[in-house]
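Sequence in, structure out. Go.
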Amino acid sequence: MNTRVFGKIVNGAQLYSIVIVMLFPRDVFAYLDPGTGSLVIQAIIAIFIGAGLFIGHIRIKVSRFFSSLMKRIKGKKTETDPSDSRENEESSQ
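Output:
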């Protein structure tokens, strides 16, 4: 009997072993000292500050891109706009 577990094919003995290990977990003796809490808080603050700086940097780049694009469009429009040249010819007559 072959079964897929987490995308891998396992046989009956392996599946049985996985079930036994998950049903009867062993005690883990871990120690969390008081400095662990401050480390977690610092990591969370660093994530938020880093994300804010990253988003701000991207926002500035996008706004600069679009402002330069608008300047190029306005520059080309004034150079090739035929209505401006007609007005200039009429005013000179």
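Check: The chain is about 75% helix and 5% strand. The chain has a mean pLDDT of 79.
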